[in-house]
Write a structure and sequence with these properties.
Elements: H1 3-24, H2 27-48, H3 57-71, H4 75-86, H5 92-113, H6 120-132
Helix pairs in contact: 1-2, 2-3, 3-4, 3-5, 4-5
Length: 133
């Protein structure tokens, strides 16, 4: 198994362990294990970052690492990972998911800088209503 595959496997195992810890209510353990998963997935992504012909693996690893970064509160790292992924040739579907992640972490700060506030509960309800229709 290649080093990239091994790091990715370890990251996914750790992410699953973090999810389980969160379900048990052990937030401290969940956060620690999430950070370990982020570190492993970031390492895997870094090993393939310059291989622009390694799609979709390259963009999938970066998307996964960015998602884990968001879970850890590492928003600048997530933005960097998204930018690296988009700088290659990701498949359209993955590119859209990466752009959605970027919006997810930047929409609130953008709106707040421009004086907009919104009710978090109303936003959640809007999302749920949209998904129901």
């Amino acid at each position: 198994m290649s080093q990239i595959q091994e790091l990715h496997k370890q990251a996914m195992d750790l992410a699953e362990a973090a999810f389980t810890a969160k379900l048990r209510g052990d937030l401290k353990q969940a956060n620690e294990v999430s950070r370990q998963a982020f570190d492993k997935e970031s390492q895997a992504a870094a090993l393939i970052a310059n291989q622009l012909d390694a799609e979709p693996t390259r963009s999938v690893l970066h998307r996964s690492a960015a998602t884990l970064a968001i879970d850890c509160g590492e928003l600048q790292a997530a933005e960097r990972l998204i930018a690296i992924a988009l700088s290659g040739n990701p498949p359209q579907e993955i590119a859209q998911e990466l752009k959605d992640l970027f919006i997810k972490i930047n929409l609130r700060p953008y709106l707040e800088r421009h004086g907009f506030t919104f009710d978090e509960e109303k936003l959640r309800n809007l999302i749920v209503d949209k998904q129901s229709s």
